[in-house]
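cron nightly-structures :: item 1 of 1
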Amino acid sequence: MNISGISGTAVKENIKNTYQYIKANEKILLSEQHSLKNYDISVQITNMLGAAVSTGIGAAVYTAILSSIYKKNLKPGLGILGNISIGGAVERSNNFVDKVSMLSENGAKNVIVPMDNLNELQDIPQSVLGSTDVPFYSNCQMLMQKCIISE
């Protein structure tokens, strides 16, 4: 696995922990023909929308890796918040309202969010909720179901 584009240790740790979770649970998450040993994984981090990438990107990395391996398309205008621990636990998103608002203002139609942020939903401006769906997930399987385009 290669990580480039960022020097922040915390972000790299999020990515490595997510990769290690996938690797440790490969028999459950991936079929034999989709084994990680058949892939070289490269993650390129790019700051966009004038915001620096901080911690809590594990869920997005998880979704990117699995959707790429299985060649599944993600929903257009998708934002993914939250982190996945090395043990597979979904961790809440810090600065939840600010992140959802910024993503919505920049065109996100869906922002998938950890269930632990549910009690903060009322803090999101109605204008944001009117233009962006904010579904919640509590585990990795639910995350993938909400991100992938149904066929």
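cron nightly-structures :: done
The domain at 2-147 is CATH 3.30.230.10 (Ribosomal Protein S5; domain 2).
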